């Protein structure tokens, strides 16, 4: 069992839960499948439960650690040869400036308190090949959800707009120290190569989703009327009798494209909404990344 040093205590303000189950650790490393010559980046290495076995396979690794004490321990660990350590906040790191940019493979046991903003920060970075993250199981279920389900929401559609979402394995609380109060899961994210047109559409998609899911139990006619003038609702390319959870990603892209046109013509009412669905903490700013769930 990969226990952290006895003097090392998890810090609640950093959302730390140290992975200690050797079987789970091995399963995650196998899912990542690191190889020599690849450019690997770990976010939040903690006590190096994943760092060591990944280094053994790849020979080199860059790790980003915010906790000063943990960073100091990692920096002076004689068994972590090949480790390049960046002490700082992953949300502020320019991944495009790292060695191997364009071919980066990113992984980590993410602090639950920064999950969504960090994922979207990474999805908007150019040149990341894939990501493997330990997250709350509930968040993974929402990332991977399909239409017509209670898990399907604004976070779902935005994540699947940027990447292919593949659940990998579930992880019980007993795999951590201290034990979290929730189940966890590992997810693989494969970023999509978006066209310039789709990249430009992203803020309008976010704006459309904010309106649609602000009243997910109501019809789209009711939800979208706070964004689109009543007389223009019938020009939208969707069945207004449906609810937000009934539209697919493709449907939302078509709807957002129309919203983009209306916005450029100055015909939208406003972008503010009173979110009431389970994505209620995602920012209403149409140019902002979805925030932590």
UniProtKB/TrEMBL annotation:
Subcellular location, principal: cytoplasm
UniProt catalytic activity: adenosine(1518)/adenosine(1519) in 16S rRNA + 4 S-adenosyl-L-methionine = N(6)-dimethyladenosine(1518)/N(6)-dimethyladenosine(1519) in 16S rRNA + 4 S-adenosyl-L-homocysteine + 4 H(+)
Domain Ribosomal RNA adenine methylase transferase N-terminal: 24-193
Organism: Candidatus Anaerobiospirillum merdipullorum
Keyword Transcription appears in the UniProt entry: no
Xref: InterPro entries: KsgA/Erm, rRNA_Ade_diMease-like_C, rRNA_Ade_Mease_Trfase_CS, rRNA_Ade_methylase_Trfase_N, rRNA_adenine_dimethylase, SAM-dependent_MTases_sf
Keywords, ordered alphabetically: Cytoplasm, Methyltransferase, RNA-binding, rRNA processing, S-adenosyl-L-methionine, Transferase
Subcellular localization: Cytoplasm
Any one of the GO CC terms: cytosol
Biased composition regions of type Low complexity, renumbered to the chain: 274-285
EC main group: transferase
PROSITE patterns in the cross-refs: RRNA_A_DIMETH, SAM_RNA_A_N6_MT
Main function: Specifically dimethylates two adjacent adenosines (A1518 and A1519) in the loop of a conserved hairpin near the 3'-end of 16S rRNA in the 30S particle. May play a critical role in biogenesis of 30S subunits.
Name of protein: Ribosomal RNA small subunit methyltransferase A
Matches recorded under Gene3D superfamilies: Ribosomal RNA adenine dimethylase-like, domain 2, Vaccinia Virus protein VP39
Binding residues annotated for S-adenosyl-L-methionine, in chain numbering: 17, 19, 44, 65, 89, 109
Annotated SUPFAM superfamilies: S-adenosyl-L-methionine-dependent methyltransferases
EC number: 2.1.1.182
GO molecular function terms listed in the Swiss-Prot or TrEMBL record: 16S rRNA (adenine(1518)-N(6)/adenine(1519)-N(6))-dimethyltransferase activity; RNA binding
Location of the region described as Disordered in the Swiss-Prot/TrEMBL record: 270-293
Family: Belongs to the class I-like SAM-binding methyltransferase superfamily. rRNA adenine N(6)-methyltransferase family. RsmA subfamily.
DNA repair is among the record's keywords: no
């Amino acid at each position: 069992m990969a226990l952290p040093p006895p003097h090392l205590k998890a810090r609640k303000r950093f959302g730390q839960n140290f992975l200690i189950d050797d079987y789970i650790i091995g399963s995650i490393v196998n899912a990542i499948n690191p190889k020599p010559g690849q450019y690997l980046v770990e976010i939040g290495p903690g006590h190096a439960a994943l760092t060591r076995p990944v280094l053994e396979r790849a020979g080199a690794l860059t790790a980003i650690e915010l906790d000063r004490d943990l960073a100091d321990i990692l920096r002076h660990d004689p068994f972590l040869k090949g480790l390049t350590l960046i002490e700082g906040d992953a949300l502020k790191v320019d991944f495009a400036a790292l060695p191997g940019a364009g071919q980066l493979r990113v992984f980590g046991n993410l602090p639950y308190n920064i999950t969504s903003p960090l994922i979207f920060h990474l999805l908007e970075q150019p040149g990341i090949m894939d990501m493997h993250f330990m997250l709350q199981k509930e968040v993974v279920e929402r990332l991977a959800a399909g239409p017509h389900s209670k898990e399907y929401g604004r976070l779902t559609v935005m994540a699947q707009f940027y990447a292919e979402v593949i659940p990998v394995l579930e992880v019980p609380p007993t795999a951590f120290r201290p034990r979290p109060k929730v189940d966890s899961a590992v997810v693989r994210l494969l970023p999509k190569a978006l066209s310039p047109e789709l990249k430009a559409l992203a803020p309008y998609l976010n704006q459309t989703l904010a309106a649609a899911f602000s009243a997910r139990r109501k019809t789209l006619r009711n939800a979208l009327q706070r964004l689109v003038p009543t007389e223009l609702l019938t020009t939208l390319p969707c069945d207004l009798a449906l609810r937000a959870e009934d539209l697919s990603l493709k449907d939302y892209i078509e709807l957002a494209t129309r919203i983009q046109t209306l916005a450029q013509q100055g015909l939208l009412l406003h972008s503010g909404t009173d979110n009431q669905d389970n994505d209620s903490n995602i920012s209403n700013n149409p140019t902002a990344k979805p925030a932590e769930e």
